[in-house]
Amino acid sequence: MSSNKPLVSVVIPCYNVQEYIEECITSVLNQTYPYLEVICVDNNSTDTTWLKLERLKEKHPNIVIEKEERKGAPCARNKGMDLSKGEWIQFLDADDLLDKNKIESQISLIQEKENCVFIAGGYVKKYVNGDEKDETVSAGEPLLNLLTRHLGNTCSNLFRADLIKKIGGWNESFKSSQEVKLMLDLLKLNNNVLYDNRLLTTIREREAGQISQQNPKRKWNQFVQMRVEIIEYIKTDEPQLFNENEEEINSSLFNNIRTLAPFDLASATNYCNLYIPKDYIPKNTSKEIGLYSKIYKLVGFRFTEILYQLIK
Q1: Degrees, nearest 5: CA angle 160-153-195
Q2: DSSP H helical segments within the chain, as ranges?
Q3: What phi and psi, each to the nearest 5 degrees, are found at residue 41?
Q4: What is the spatial distance between Cα 252 and Cα 136, in angstroms, rounded to a whole number?
Q5: Which of 24, 70, 103, 263 has its CA 20 to 30 A from that of 247?
Q6: pLDDT digit string (tens) for 65-97?
Q7: Residue range 25-32: average pLDDT?
Q8: CATH code of the domain made up of 8-212
Q9: pLDDT tens for residues 266-278?
């Protein structure tokens, strides 16, 4: 191993991904950056995932394969993190893919800001229906980017291993919004982030195993709660940032609360009452929002959402 090239640990949690895992690992083995270790952690798969991992290890003996019985991707990622030796960690879900230049391209950026906490990368989201969407990152204030979903993705980012281990890794109690919690905890330690807007990761939606399909009420409650946690941190620790961006922050939170409303109107109303200023009015950026704002002024959030769902 070259003394001036950092080792990157690729940690892949695996749960019932027999149809995806070989293509995923192949995308790692094809990386142009050679200083890698690959760690795959099976998380109670009931299909042939483990068998496929064993066969892949026979072909590629340097791959590390382990099992983690505690359920959930955060537990599997933490197991892989504990086994890792790299200075940087590439977390990769087993149904996602890396462009062959992904890791080399991002490692090359580190010299620009050697003390950065992670590199936020762009990615392509592929949906079950065949649609694709480019998701880019925004250079600027990391906390605001995290709030507005412009700070990359678990698999498109590259993380400093020592700082992830310092915060204790992934919060294993979280069923969704796991990467938001992780990145917020990292930013509390070090808010130096590098941005890589190249689309070097492919995130694939699956028909089965998606949290949003299993329990959207829980997912969107966790989603909003994490945005509240970000905002409360900004208010307390970065008051000037909050004051300078209060309108954008309130608008972002309000839109997220609206996303929760169809699944849990009571909780959405409670969030609105607690965290949205009484004098807040949604912006008239379209005819739809203009009408929504007029109704909102008259009857408030809960009844506006009820009416909106009826006429939608």
Answers
A1: 65
A2: 21-29, 49-59, 73-83, 102-107, 142-147, 161-166, 178-189, 211-214, 216-237, 239-244, 246-260, 265-275, 287-311
A3: -120, 110
A4: 17
A5: 263
A6: 999 999 999 999 999 999 999 999 999 999 999
A7: 98
A8: 3.90.550.10
A9: 999 999 999 999 9
